[in-house]
């Protein structure tokens, strides 16, 4: 695309790369910080590091308090994405295919769950989780994040499903498919891209959510972002380690994007989002 | 095999979609013809079980199936839209009802799929997916899937309506042969009189959710009992002119004369032909025929369907001829009167 626009407008390519550079600079800067010692970070100001070291990454992977919180985030985020999808698929199907009393109101009410700031839910979550033993568990965080991910997932999936002719469902019933069999064999392959997009959004929102995740965990399920806010020690801030952790938190999102990259564009085009 | 609809009614949002339908058909093809919104699709959906009737029963082979779920009925359904499973190959699309039917196993499924694919001209396309096929091929796939499994009731809801002209003609001929050896009831709906007349099968005329007439389509075409039936079976549309019955006949008063466009000529066809002075308004040339729009005395419009290509000058005066023997006479309620056009005077 850059080539065709570049052909017509000579400066289009320049603008494009300028834009990319602006976006990339903070990320490159962070990556640069992560591969140099703290003294160099504080002592000199340059994009290219003079002394390259992987010490920061070694510290990260050598210290359980760091890498375990990284794993915690990955675990509860994955759990949340899968659980949200499992709950949202039948719900979205019902919203797209059946008419029942109050269906429109219910659909809207689901969306209102996204309208309240997460902070509103902090206290109830904290107290309920303490009482039922979900406090500081991966399951607890995953369930808490479903509060805003399920409505989103239902919304995305419903849009896609409504784009699939109802006659396909009927034809399957005529052919003798039971609903579950039809759903798995015929319907799910048709909304593959929707599922990809939904998983991506659930993963992303859960991954970047800090407030709830931090409040309802203490040690065993502590998210990486919470750990990153506690790097100030007696020796000052460990910039290099913090930068290394920052680089690593980008990796899972990038991996997920890589897997759903073909679906995202297709998905955005097909769905209502 | 018999299919009986016993006093079936469907109401939706305060409107009557089907009104007290009573219908009985046997093995083989039955054509269902009616204009838009006449209830064809609703009737088919009721038979399939996709639309529960508000009252009445559906009986297949003497058994009440009204409350049996769609998937447990022995039916097949072809839509006007080309509906296939997009994620499955053509082979799997056709095999799909067979795989769910206990009567078919392994090699028998394969044999049947290839047989039906051969019949519908899909043999070379079995590895493709529906999106890679043309519209005609997609609809052939849908029909092949419906034909694959022997069913009690095969329903086709205007299956050729979305196809272009050539494909429609070709598939129509193919289908007539396919239906001849169908084991169960075949219900075929259409809005196209040519289709119903070509199939020459027992025909049900629907209008506004009611059964208007059942019987032999050719007889109905020649002697339609009502104006609604005549209009449904006429394409191009019937010309309607007001008239008055001559004194001393079996009926009296105002009547409507139905004249099929191809019965209007520009030269007298027989000694009894009635001459109508007219002014030419418009000539539509379709290639093999010319549709001549005429203005008669008293601002009455008349369309003539003339074979061949003709050139006319709008505004030109001419004479149209109609053989009274081919004129249909209806009373004001729309029932056909047993009168010939010779017993009626044109009004005005």
From TrEMBL, chain A:
InterPro entries per the UniProt record, alphabetical: BP-dep_ABC_trans_perm, MetI-like, MetI-like_sf
UniProt xrefs under SUPFAM superfamilies: MetI-like (SSF161098)
Places the protein is found: Cell membrane
Domain ABC transmembrane type-1: 70-260
Tree of life domain: Bacteria
One matching Pfam family: BPD_transp_1
A GO cellular component entry from the record: plasma membrane
Keywords: Cell membrane, Membrane, Transmembrane, Transmembrane helix, Transport
Membrane topology field: Multi-pass membrane protein
GO biological processes: transmembrane transport
Ranges annotated as spanning the membrane: 12-32, 74-95, 107-129, 141-161, 182-208, 239-260
Transmembrane helix listed as a keyword: yes
Membership in a protein family: Belongs to the binding-protein-dependent transport system permease family.
Protein's name in the database: Glycerol transport system permease protein
Organism listed in the record: Nonomuraea wenchangensis
Lineage: Bacteria, Bacillati, Actinomycetota, Actinomycetes, Streptosporangiales
Automatic annotation (TrEMBL), chain B:
SUPFAM superfamilies: MOP-like, P-loop containing nucleoside triphosphate hydrolases
UniProt entry tagged with the keyword Transport: yes
Keyword Nucleotide-binding: yes
Taxonomic superkingdom: Bacteria
GO MF term set: ATP binding; ATP hydrolysis activity; transmembrane transporter activity
Record-linked Pfam families: ABC_tran, TOBE_2
Keywords, ordered alphabetically: ATP-binding, Nucleotide-binding, Transport
Gene3D superfamilies reported for this sequence: 2.40.50.100, Nucleic acid-binding proteins, P-loop containing nucleotide triphosphate hydrolases
Start and end residues of each ABC transporter domain: 3-233
GO CC terms in record: ATP-binding cassette (ABC) transporter complex, substrate-binding subunit-containing
PANTHER family the record matches: MALTODEXTRIN IMPORT ATP-BINDING PROTEIN MSMX, OSMOPROTECTIVE COMPOUNDS UPTAKE ATP-BINDING PROTEIN GGTA
Name of the featured protein: Glycerol transport system ATP-binding protein
Organism: Nonomuraea wenchangensis
Upper lineage: Bacteria, Bacillati, Actinomycetota, Actinomycetes, Streptosporangiales
């Amino acid at each position: 695309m850059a080539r065709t626009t570049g052909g017509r407008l000579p400066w289009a390519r320049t603008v494009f790369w300028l834009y990319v550079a602006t976006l990339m600079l903070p990320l490159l800067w962070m990556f640069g910080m992560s591969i140099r010692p703290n003294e160099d970070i504080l002592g000199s100001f340059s994009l290219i590091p003079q002394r390259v070291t992987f010490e920061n990454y070694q510290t990260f992977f050598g210290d359980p308090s760091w890498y375990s919180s990284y794993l915690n985030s990955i675990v509860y985020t994955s759990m949340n994405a899968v659980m949200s999808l499992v709950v949202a698929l039948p719900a979205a199907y019902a919203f797209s295919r059946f008419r029942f009393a109050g269906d429109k109101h219910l659909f809207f009410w689901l969306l209102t769950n996204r309208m309240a700031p997460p902070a509103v839910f902090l206290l109830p979550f904290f107290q309920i989780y303490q009482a039922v033993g979900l406090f500081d568990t991966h399951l607890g965080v995953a369930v808490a994040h479903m509060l805003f991910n399920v409505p989103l997932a239902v919304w995305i999936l419903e849009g896609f499903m409504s784009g699939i002719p109802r006659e396909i469902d009927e034809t399957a019933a005529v052919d003798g498919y039971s609903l579950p069999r039809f759903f798995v064999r015929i319907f799910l392959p048709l909304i593959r891209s929707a599922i990809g997009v939904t998983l991506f959004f659930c993963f992303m929102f859960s991954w970047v959510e800090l407030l709830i995740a931090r409040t309802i965990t203490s040690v065993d399920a502590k998210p990486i972002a919470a750990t990153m806010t506690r790097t100030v020690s007696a020796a000052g801030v460990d910039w290099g380690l913090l930068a290394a952790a920052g680089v690593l938190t980008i990796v899972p999102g990038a991996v997920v994007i890589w897997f759903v990259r073909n679906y995202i564009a297709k998905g955005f085009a097909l769905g209502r989002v | 095999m018999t299919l009986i609809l016993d006093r079936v009614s469907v109401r939706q949002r305060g409107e009557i979609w089907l009104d007290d339908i009573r219908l009985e058909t046997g093995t083989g093809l039955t054509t269902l013809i009616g204009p838009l919104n006449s209830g064809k699709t609703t009737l088919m959906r009721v038979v399939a079980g996709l639309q529960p009737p508000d009252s009445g029963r559906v009986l297949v082979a003497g058994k009440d199936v009204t409350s049996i779920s769609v998937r447990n009925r022995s039916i097949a359904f072809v839509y006007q839209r080309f509906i296939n499973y997009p994620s499955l190959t053509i082979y799997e699309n056709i095999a799909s009802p067979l795989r769910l039917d206990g009567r078919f196993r392994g090699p028998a499924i394969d044999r049947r799929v290839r047989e039906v694919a051969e019949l519908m001209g899909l043999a070379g396309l079995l590895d493709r997916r529906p999106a890679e096929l043309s519209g005609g091929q997609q609809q052939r796939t849908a029909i092949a899937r419906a034909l694959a499994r022997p069913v009690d009731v095969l329903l086709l809801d205007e299956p050729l309506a979305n196809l272009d002209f050539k494909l429609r003609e070709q598939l129509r001929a193919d289908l007539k042969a396919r239906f001849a050896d169908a084991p169960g009831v075949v219900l075929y709906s259409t809005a196209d009189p040519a289709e119903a007349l070509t199939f020459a099968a027992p025909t049900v005329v629907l209008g506004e959710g009611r059964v208007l007439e059942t019987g032999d389509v050719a007889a109905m075409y020649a002697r339609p009992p009502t104006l609604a039936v005549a209009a449904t079976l006429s394409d191009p549309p019937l010309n309607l002119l007001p008239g008055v019955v001559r004194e001393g006949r079996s009926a009296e008063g105002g009547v409507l004369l139905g004249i099929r466009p191809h019965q209007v000529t520009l030269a007298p066809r027989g000694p009894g032909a009635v001459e109508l002075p007219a002014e030419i308004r418009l000539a539509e040339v379709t290639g093999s025929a010319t549709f001549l729009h005429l203005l008669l005395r008293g601002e009455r419009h008349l369309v003539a369907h003339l074979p061949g290509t003709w050139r006319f000058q709008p505004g030109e005066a001419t004479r149209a001829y109609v053989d009274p023997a081919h004129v249909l006479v209806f009373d004001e309620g729309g029932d056909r009167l047993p009168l010939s056009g010779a017993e009626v005077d044109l009004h005005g």
